[in-house]
């Protein structure tokens, strides 16, 4: 597995964990509290937490190429920053392998 694939798979795993966190919050009817999520960067050793409102999270999840990462956790060779917030950055996977992995591993795609 090359570096782009490894980063993409790490990010996909973190995104999947965050989807489970959102599911649990919804199950307990915690719809107004911010979601305490893990950084979705490509570093498998990253343990940083990020806080997003449900609306912020849903906006990111609307595009399978978008991920929420802690500030400074961008891998410019596989993604670009599309939004900067005080608590996190939103990155979009670049065309090619990074975008393909993001789309094929999207838990909301139904595939």
Describe the structure using short key phrases.
single chain, 111 residues, alpha+beta, 3-stranded antiparallel β-sheet, two-stranded antiparallel ribbon, 3 helices, 37% helix
* Alpha plus pi helix count: 3
Q: How widely separated are the two ends?
A: 23 Å
Radius of gyration: 13 Å
The main sheet orders its strands as 3-5-4
Shape: globular
Largest sheet: 3 strands, antiparallel
Assign a percent range to the helix content. Answer: 25-40%
The number of strands is 5
Q: What structural class do helix, strand and pairing data support? A: alpha+beta
Strand content: 15-25%
Task: Summarize the structure in words.
This protein is of the alpha+beta class and 111 residues long. The protein has one domain. 37% of the residues lie in helices and 21% in strands. It has helices at residues 3-27, 54-61, 97-104; strands at 35-38, 49-52, 66-69, 79-84, 89-93. The strands form two sheets. It has a three-stranded antiparallel beta sheet with strand order 3-5-4. Strand 4 (79-84) and strand 5 (89-93) form a beta hairpin. The radius of gyration is 13 Å and the shape is globular. The relative contact order is 0.20. The mean pLDDT is 93.
């Amino acid at each position: 597995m090359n570096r782009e694939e490894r980063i993409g798979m790490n990010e996909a795993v973190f995104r999947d964990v965050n989807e489970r966190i959102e599911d649990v919050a919804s199950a307990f009817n915690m719809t107004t509290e911010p979601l305490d999520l893990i950084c979705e960067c490509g570093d498998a050793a990253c343990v940083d937490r990020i806080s997003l409102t449900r609306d912020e999270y849903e906006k990111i999840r609307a595009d399978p190429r978008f991920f929420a990462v802690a500030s400074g956790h961008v891998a410019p060779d596989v993604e670009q920053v599309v939004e900067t917030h005080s608590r996190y950055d939103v990155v979009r996977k670049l065309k090619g392998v990074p975008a393909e992995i993001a789309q094929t591993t999207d838990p909301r795609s139904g595939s």
